[in-house]
Amino acid sequence: GEEAMILLATEPDLVARRVMLMAEQAIAQARSLLKSGAPGVMLGGGDLIAAFLAHCRQRGLTPFVSLRLNDGHGLEFVGQAHPSAAHTVSRFYEDHYLEYRIGPDQRDWHQHVLNWAIPQVRDHKFAFIQEICENYPIDGFELDFMRHNSFFQLDKTASAERRQIMTDFVRRVRQTLDRTAAPGQHRWLCIRVPAY
Q: Worst-scoring range by mean pLDDT, 46-50, 98-102, 113-117?
């Protein structure tokens, strides 16, 4: 059968944020260290998704893009000139984390991620997915609900409300994949969920 390759996408402004947080000397060092990887491609003005698609097409692979829907890596360093914050904290997160995160403890993985009960949080993530679907001829998209699997304040949202929010979000993504597909193309939607 056909083989697939998945590109893990990230928030679009993270590399720009890295540049803003680092001093000129550190930028030069980062460019030399990262020039062969994805951040290096992006720092150099390249289009990582287009390069990924070309790589897959040349090799007969089916290109999928994957997106971590509530990634908590490095969020404890928001507002700090820390290397982890520079490539994991998006501008949206930095601008809204005090009001949009799940809980008050910035060091706790389950509290410092964003609260999906807030429509702006879902809309921000959806806009990124929509941009990829509208601008790139991908064959499929993976929604990664595992990173990280806290999406709501459980004591403030009922199970039925959480289920409806997530079902509506997945439905919007499915509709976007269908609307933006080439004539006769079926774009696959994959969902990565925790096993417990």
A: 46-50
